[in-house]
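Board notes (copied after class):
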Amino acid sequence: MHAKIVKSGVRWTLATTILRRGISLILFIFLAKWLTQTDFGIYRSFSAILALLTYLTHFGLDYLFLISKSKERINFLALLQTGLFVSAVITILLIFFGKTIGTYYNSAELGRILTYGGGLIFVESLRRIARVYAQKRFQFKELAIAETLNVFIYSLLCLGIIYFWRKAWVYILLFYIGNLGELIYLCIKLPPLPATLQKQVFSFKWLKHSCAYFKRNFQFLGIVSTINLLQSYSINAPVLFLGTMVEPALMGVYFFASQLIAIPIGMLNTSLSQVFFPVLAQSETAASVSGIRHYTAIVLKIGIPALIFYALILQYLVPLIWGDKWLSALPLVLYLVLFYGTSMLHNPISGIPYICRKPQWELLWNIVTLGLRIIALFLGMKVSFAFAILLFCIVSAFMHLAFYYLSLTLLKANLWQITIDLISNLPVLILIAFGCLYLWKFSVIFPLLTFVGYGLYLFLAEKDTLKEVLSLAIK
């Protein structure tokens, strides 16, 4: 693995992600006061549906472009042409079927937003293409700045407008204006496309070349597209599946809980995912395995414990900041520790099957994962909405670990050593979880003792790990 590239990229993305998450948290405090559970639910449903549809606009060509080492020009041309054409088709379809989808999700307002806001898929599709172009060129600094600009624009607009106009559609519009700002910045800062390629984008002659290229890589692209759709639906199953069974307000409660608990995880996962994939694609196997094991140690010793402590703090902060409005989200916050904690082992290396040219392995994993998650949610709803989310998180944690082993198997890693790494850290994680997420109900002294004790352990026995984490933010 190109260690310098990874560290430099992670430093930039981590530093700007901390800034973005800080701004987003401040904004979220106000939005959760101003908007209702139903407003949040409508927003979350719309964004999940649009994200699912956005994957259709690329047909896997974005991933092929990232891992390709030849024919990059025709690949990128095909990606651009496909993105624009399919976005236009989806926009037209939503005009006719948006309200029907809204009815399916128990919200007439969602139907209207889908009908009149379907064109936002152009922004999402082109933004993804620009981000892939930046990743391919290892321009992580420009990518990090663009994402930060996105959050600044969106947050300032929301703070200035939402207080006076508390509507779900306004919230949605402002969010995607921020995404548009990110797209424009990347278009300005990234090297311009050759003039000939710009003309070819709208050429029917070159569209035939793109179709021929697509046909030659159909098997790979078909598998990748299916994986992306399954993965997008699977991750958002509590919204896309349960949303057809419950009112939007419950989706809003789930969105609130997932947003809060995902703040620190998003910092790490986002920073590493967009750096790891393009770098791993150019790295030797042995270096990749070494880098993953090194990262795993950081997650197990610092990432997951920090998430547990954070979930505990939220149990006190939520009622302090929002009163009784969001108390129903507190159990979900604890359940989601399972989901997001194990996702730290899964998300940054999720591209390994593509890199190893074995996407069928991930396809199988996604099919099994989606099936198990749907079954868990369906059975859980027979008890309660909260229990459905708990079962979803348990199943997801198991499948995240399964993918971790799958990826390392493809890299021909020593699975016995990997298992020892995981098991050796498990007792400490269980002790921390028990001390913080269970005993806190009896006295705050127990989690405080756990926190202080683990902090001393890290300082005395894991100095190298602490130095490695600090090195991502300094130098």
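Comment from the instructor: The chain has a mean pLDDT of 82. The two ends are 20 Å apart (CA to CA).
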